[in-house]
Specification:
α3 runs parallel beside α6, α4 packs antiparallel against α6 and α6 runs antiparallel to α7. The protein has one domain: Rhopdopsin 7-helix transmembrane proteins (Up-down Bundle), CATH 1.20.1070. The chain is built from nine helices and two strands, in the order ααααααααββα. The protein starts with a helix and ends with a helix. The relative contact order is 0.15. The protein is mostly helical and about 300 residues long. A two-stranded antiparallel ribbon has the order 1-2. It comes from Agaricus bisporus var. burnettii. InterPro entries: DUF6533. Keywords: Membrane, Transmembrane, Transmembrane helix.
Length: about 300
């Protein structure tokens, strides 16, 4: 049973590292150099998600090698893993909120609704996932990971509640994205809108499936394996959000509808462009033809 947890963890990290090197060239091209290399909120969140997920799991790997008899070290690693999960989910939620607010032209109601929803998700996740079990654990374990998994069996309902909150947030963000991309006028910016809808659908499909799997594993699996899907869930969320951000800076979408008088939605920097052309702070803007919008 412990070997299954180890294999799932290693496979998740291998996928994360593989995707990092697979997309490193795009990251350099679209976030580091040229006119794309200006830092703002979006790029800072991108780098936080990218490198915290890549480097943050190194200490977590120690769970499989630490001596479980040193319980204080096991408890520290378990607390660190919980903290990492919450921080990554907050970063991903902020990036998703920026996409939605930009897509809806930073309208006050969508900004307030999205922020409140995001805060609720963070509070629910923090309350449920952080809630510690007060039950003393006296069994002898093979590793710190088995120590943590044993604790998880006493916290299953808390963890299910936390991940259910994440699922609801992702579902609402997907519905908002789908509604906006379907109702926007076709024509200028259609390539970008199609990409946003495609990426949003793929993101929700993969992450929601993993989240539901994680919840089912927490409820139905052997106690030793109940927490095994947490790492794949976080890793895939991070990878998918990285891909979404990279796709928004795809040079092939450059110059979409630049010749129109437009209302520009800056996806990543919350800066509104006041004339035609590309925004100074970000490469991919949504341009809506004012005439089409008034039809």
């Amino acid at each position: 049973m412990q070997s299954a947890n180890w294999m799932i963890f290693v496979a998740s990290l291998a996928l994360l590292v593989y995707d990092y090197f697979l997309t490193l060239g795009f990251e350099i091209e679209r976030f580091w150099i040229g006119r794309f290399g200006r830092f703002h909120y979006g790029s800072l969140l991108f780098f936080a998600n990218r490198y915290l997920s890549l480097l943050g799991y190194i200490p977590v790997a120690l769970e499989f090698f630490m001596d479980p008899r040193v319980s204080c070290q096991c408890k520290f690693l378990r607390a660190y893993n919980t903290f990492l999960v919450i921080v990554l989910q907050i970063i991903i939620a902020c990036m998703m909120l920026m996409r939605i607010c930009a897509l809806y032209e930073r309208r006050a109601w969508i900004l307030v609704f999205s922020v409140i929803l995001g805060i609720c998700e963070v509070i629910i996740a923090a309350v449920f996932i952080v809630n510690p079990s007060r039950r003393e654990i006296s069994e002898v374990f093979l590793s710190c990971d088995s120590f943590a998994q044993n604790a998880i069996q006493y916290q299953t309902h808390y963890l299910v509640g936390g991940w259910a909150g994440v699922f609801v947030f992702d579902a609402v963000m997907f519905v908002l994205t789908l509604y906006k991309t379907v109702t926007l006028p076709k024509g200028s910016g259609v390539g970008l809108l199609t990409m946003i809808m495609r990426d949003g659908t793929v993101y929700f499909g993969i992450v929601a499936t993993l989240n539901l799997t994680n919840i089912l594993v927490l409820v139905l699996a052997n106690p030793v394996n109940r927490g095994s899907m947490g790492t794949p869930m976080n890793v895939m969320s991070s990878i998918m959000m990285t891909r979404l951000m990279l796709n928004l800076r795809d040079p092939e979408l450059n110059g979409v509808a630049q010749d129109f008088k437009t209302t520009t939605l800056n996806i990543s920097g919350f800066h509104r462009q006041t004339n035609s052309g590309m925004s100074d702070c970000y490469s991919m803007d949504i341009h809506l033809n004012e005439h089409d919008r008034n039809v």
